[in-house]
Amino acid sequence: MAVTTTPVDDGAINGFGEELRGDLLRPADPNYDEARSIWNGMIDRSPAAIVRAMGVSDVIATVNFAREHEMRLAIRGGGHNIAGNAVCDDGLMLDLSAMRSVRVTPERKTARVEPGATLADFDHEAQAFGLATPLGINSTTGVAGLTLGGGFGWLTRKYGMTVDNLRSVDVVTADGELRRASEDENPDLFWGIRGGGGNFGVVTSFEFDLHEVGPAVLAGMVVYRGADAPNVLRHVRDFNADAPDESTVWVVLRKAPPLPFLPEDIHGEDVIVVVPFYAGDIAEGEAVLAPIREYGDPVADGVGPHRYAEFQRAFDPLLTDGARNYWKSHNFSTIPDEAIDTVVEYARNLPTAQSEIFFGQIGGAMGRVPTDATAFPHRDAEYGMNVHTRWEDPAMDDACIAWSREFFDAMATYATGGVYVNFISEREGEETLGYGENYDRLVDVKTTYDPENLFRMNQNVEPEPAA
């Protein structure tokens, strides 16, 4: 498909806008700059027009208009995607952020979620009934983008990936048709949506399974000085090797932020933060997690009963929008001593005080799903690592990106060769690592539902060329 680099006729765009229930914004409109701004401050793109969709009819109209006028099309859900694929230059941006309904059916333990909803929206509604599904760890993340890439967080070891809890979707495909996809309807499309990113259409509704969680859970942070990092990492790794599915322990290496529960003399110093979470009875969790909390000489221990929805917001202050962000990702089946030594070396030389390296423990239930059951392929991963480089000054772009790439390369020898598709900042060949051995099947699904590659603002799977 030819993709225009200049806007189509203004009259055509204005006429299209008159057909919408939502708003159509052009560069001269007062809310245009706000609408094109997303979480990652590095992204500065200017669409020819922005559609603020109010419902499925607006989505269908936008997809049809973009296809008929051969315009580049970008889809914004929560706007949290690191690569900034929610915004394009010159083309058409479809903003779904106003479509954020969450409807819980407690007797069935299911939820219907629109694509503009955030994790906070979802958790707020589901926790009213003591229910939840595995999501991420930052409440401002969009449910749609998280889900389409796989989705993991505190509940993953107990209940699987986000996509493992997806029952069905409503999706507008490239031909402008609204389709339902599930295990029984359009199963090939449903397979691809569960980990294949936004390659196959615009999902207008997600149906999830829910589980009894909270409202209080045992969770929190145990903070150690940076000098203790080698021993703490080894201890957490060894503890996690035999931990039950209810137990999840993540590790973050960074400079200590000025949080109120941390001693002032540690602010700005190297720390290692151990974050345990127990998805079960709190008394049982106290016993299971005791070896984590009793280890070494921490400077702070904030572990205790927390309301689940509140803990999902615990890291929000460190991930506010507007900063410049660049990520790199690896998966690991284990973390050998040599890898730990490498991590500690780079953590001592983080390029900014906002940057961090984290290891999210996964495995458990997610690892017992066959690799080919969903498009998300990385069922052998016990840890997902994110090299999260974050800064404010554009003059630091080159240095911060170079540091991230160097660390990524240094860790590659210990990794599985897979990466998490939602953690990819730019197209450097990593998209094929993100889809792994399921890539060829994704090409087949892409060729069936989007043969002209209308949905290309993503970690793209290119369709087979026309014969």
Automatic annotation (TrEMBL):
Span of domain FAD-binding PCMH-type: 43-213
Required cofactor(s): FAD
Single GO molecular function: FAD binding
Keywords: FAD, Flavoprotein, Oxidoreductase
InterPro entries in the record: BBE (IPR012951), FAD-bd_PCMH (IPR016166), FAD-bd_PCMH-like_sf (IPR036318), FAD-bd_PCMH_sub1 (IPR016167), FAD-bd_PCMH_sub2 (IPR016169), FAD-linked_Oxidoreductase (IPR050416), Oxid_FAD_bind_N (IPR006094), Oxy_OxRdtase_FAD_BS (IPR006093)
Family: Belongs to the oxygen-dependent FAD-linked oxidoreductase family.
Record's protein name: FAD-binding oxidoreductase
Lineage, broadest ranks: Archaea, Methanobacteriati, Methanobacteriota, Stenosarchaea group, Halobacteria
